[in-house]
Amino acid sequence: MIKDASQSSIPSYSPNTPDQRVDPLFFKNPARIFLEPYQQLGPIFRCHFFGSEQIAMAGAEANRFIWAENELWDYYKTNRIFREQFSDRYLNQLEGETYMRKRRRINQGFKPSILLSHVPDMGEVVFREIDKLKGEATDLRLFCMSLVIAMVSQVLLQEDLPERMDKIMAVSNQEMLKSSSLGWKRWLWYWYPPKRARRRVIFKYLGEVLDRRDQSGVEKDDILSLILAAHPKDQPPIPRYELVHDLSQLFMGGSTTSSMIIAWGMIESWKDKDWLTELRAELKSWDSTQFESMKPFPKLYATSLEIERLRPGIPTFRRFAKQDFEWDGYSVKKGESVLHLHTLCHFLEEHYGDPFTFKPQRFIENPVPDRDIHGTYGGGQHKCVGLNLARVAPPIALANILSQFDLEFSPTPSGKERYLSVIAPREDVTVRFISKT
Ligand code: HEM
Prior knowledge:
A hairpin with a 2-residue loop joins strand 5 (325-327) and strand 6 (330-332). The chain has one domain: CATH 1.10.630.10. Strands 1-2-7-4 form a four-stranded mixed sheet. It has a three-stranded antiparallel sheet with strand order 3-11-8. It has helices spanning 23-28, 35-41, 60-68, 75-78, 80-85, 96-107, 112-117, 119-132, 140-156, 165-178, 186-189, 193-216, 223-229, 240-252, 255-271, 273-282, 298-310, 362-365, 387-390, 393-404, and strands at residues 44-49, 52-58, 138-139, 317-320, 325-327, 330-332, 337-341, 405-410, 417-419, 423-425, 430-435. It is α+β, with helices and mostly antiparallel strands. The N and C termini lie far apart (67 Å). The chain is globular. The longest helix has 24 residues, at 193-216. The structure holds protoporphyrin IX containing FE (HEM). Protoporphyrin IX containing FE (HEM) is lined by residues 91-92, 103, 249-250, 253-254, 257-258, 261, 313-314, 317, 376-380, 382-386, 389-390.
């Protein structure tokens, strides 16, 4: 039964902030700020967030509904900041058959067998990047982002990036994502000259990569080759600008989020000394050059899953309704903005006991998270295409780091969070890697 179709019938969350906006609370406490309204108002409520009125939906039932009913969502509008900064061929803003065709092609690049065959090279990059620091302290976030990009380069292209390209990509990706919280002001942000200059450098480099592939004609066993090979021969060639943007998406798509799994993985393991001792004992037999499977390393895998749960990179996901629909007795109108709180279940006692505590043990007992509860990678048709890679690269980095180095953080991370296009540590932390041997 519909309770009332009028706008006022959905309860409202009105925090005590200027204009009752959730933003200032969210920027300080992004993963958990919506728990209180969820517990007080139920799984659907209105709020003012990121520049507009939104209908928040949360909980396991909401996840199940939202991810199953693909045709309800306007991805063209939902992911418009990507189209605005790239083109109308960018994967996540496509819909229908055009989307499915492109998604099938991109999926080909993320076969686990291919990803696993590049583990030795990815592992090697971790030591190289730490070597470059020459024992000096470095900014934790920027280091982890550059590291992920350098690792991804091994499996995407099988080549090392030019000097400083990892840093340029890391900063550029943060700048790109920042647009999602700016409302209409994003249009000014798109013209910010240093942002545009960084994109030019990246696109020029990626164009040169494609030219080299064209000229060499050599088939490689990396993500780029598989994606190119999956393009049907009877179709017109993919335009160069689209390939450059796709490569850029694959390089940077998960760099900010994956990097935070490494950063939080280091912080949480370092804070929990008992767990660190257990994990290091497991990692005595770790050697990324001989890696075959994650099976012998359940504690490493559980650490990664627990970080996905406790510090989910993207805590909320804004969608637009493509048609009217009813849910939980309320009606939502076509065009309304729905704030999907897809990771809120991570903090509900009914799903995870002691939900605010880092307890990787829970994923040793149960290493397969429930897909409607564990929302880190989204769900449904547009579920993260890089999931397989995101479950491999950060654990490799963590294993190489924690098994070989002691960590010295400054200041000591408090464990509190802030929102910087991703859930990041509250403080600007530096880290120094001290070799254990
Ligand atoms: C911890 C790491 C990562 C997290 C938390 C993450 C999270 C997400 C989320 C929440 C979505 C939206 C899903 C939805 O619409 O419901 C997404 C989509 C996507 N992700 Fe990831 N991601 C990660 C790593 C990666 C990596 C490593 C790559 C590529 C190398 C990647 C590429 C993409 C792409 C291309 C999409 C768009 C998929 C589509 O619309 O079909 N992600 N990701």
